[in-house]
Amino acid sequence: MRPVVRGLAVNGEEDSVDSTPLLQRAQQPEAAPVCCSARYNLALLAFFGFFILYALRVNLSVALMDMVDSNATLTDNSTSQECAEHSAPIKVLHNHTGRRYQWDAETQGWILGSFFYGYIITQIPGGYIANKVGGKLLLGFGVLGTAIFTLFTPIAADLGAIALIVLRAVEGLGEGVTFPAMHAMWSSWAPPLERSKLLSISYAGAQLGTVISLPLSGIICYYMNWNYVFYFFGIAGIVWFIFWMWTVSDTPKAHRTISPTEKEYIFASLQNQLSSQKSVPWISIVKSLPLWAIVAAHFSYNWTFYTLLTLLPTYMKEILRFNVQENGFLSALPYFGCWLCMILAGQAADNLREKWNFSTISVRRIFTLTGMVGPAVFLVAAGFIGCNYSLAVAFLTISTTLGGFCSSGFSINHLDIAPSYASILLGITNTFATVPGMVGPIIAKSLTPDNTIREWQIVFYIAAAINVFGAILFMLFAKGEVQKWALTDHHGHRS
Fold it and tell me: Which of 207, 338, 452, 466 is the most exposed place for a label (fewest CB within 10 A)?
């Protein structure tokens, strides 16, 4: 029997420093096997779910290039002449059967940004509902709804830009509940010493979804038709929903095939962490400084993430001047690195806590600092290497890759400080963290009217400064122990 290595604030002292190993007074129950376990099956299915969610989110940014008549935006294009053409265009048999629309750059901006206007609305309500009824149905129908509406994208486009904007906003409403719903499920499924591994596996699907969908959407557009981009990913979402509803449960107690050993292991691991109180302590949540430390880190991290997610293809094309096919794969490369880093970071974080007796707060701070300051350094460096294509791609890839450390840092700190209300806390932090997706790219666009390297340096400076600022606030005010207000009933257990 191994001692657990993370401290709990069960003594009524919220502001105590989490510097001691976990429950030195108690013994960690013997871990249930990983192979074929219900909790890791849940992580794997969640992985594919978030893979599909992000594929549904980013596919429009690729398809839109084929949906818009090039003459409509010809005057808006401003390709920098500072760098030489990187390579000759690759000639391919391009399918032109898809309908083209006369949408100017401003209209395209509204179409791409409309998703976030729906996404931001359902974060906190989604967290509250998941806390009350569980996350299985909420996550399942969130994906299903997004997938079904995606199938109607070609019809909405034919009806006009306004119809497409409304459709994308509705898709955002569906996706807005998914992360809080998954956090609600992990509050009942993830043993404390496996949180980093389980959550990094499940949420890493989002990064791989970006990696695969960017080039795959481009291939579908070139060799088939842009309509099939939405049909392909929409159908994939429906298929996933069927597997999800058939195989997972909100809690270990409700699972049909979980082994008694695994069920007892999960229950014993969580027995001192969950509260049985029915009401949500909203005032205590809002007053919690550790929560606002997560908000600061989440907002700052997403500023860089969404700016690059939206504008990295533009930077590759207009500044570094890669051809379109190269652009799709090279734009996806940083997110492949981030996906790989998330998986490895999850393993490393839990090993540090379990085998090396690192406190939870130490691990969260180390991984957050690495995942935010590291990307800031390489992002600034990317602006100074001019037209060195290899170094530019390398620095941008390293910057995004290092961001994967945050998956075992602030990203799961909600479960450390208040596992019973983790879905609500994530809803709150993700609401603030959605704002960068709405305003970050707009500000970046306004700062790069001529698409010069100097203008992009300013964009990178701003993103780096915000990243460092968020990391500092997290380092100062974050906590790693369950807060007193989340443990009104210290022995309450929700199965």
Answer: 452
pLDDT per residue as tens digits for the range 302-320: 998 888 877 777 787 778 7
325 to 99, 221, 231, 315: CA distances (angstroms): 21, 11, 22, 14
pTM: predicted TM-score of the whole model, two decimal places: 0.86
Specify the long-range contacts of residues 426-429, CB closer than 8 Å, at least 24 apart: 426/123, 426/127, 426/179, 426/180, 426/183, 427/123, 427/124, 427/125, 427/126, 427/127, 427/128, 427/180, 428/123, 428/124, 428/127, 428/285, 428/291, 428/295, 429/291, 429/294, 429/295, 429/298, 429/299
Model confidence pLDDT, tens digit, residues 159-174: 999 999 999 999 999 9
Angle between helical axes of 38-67 and 226-247 (0-180°, round to 10): 170
d(CA 200, CA 208): 12
Separation of first and last alpha carbons in the chain: 23
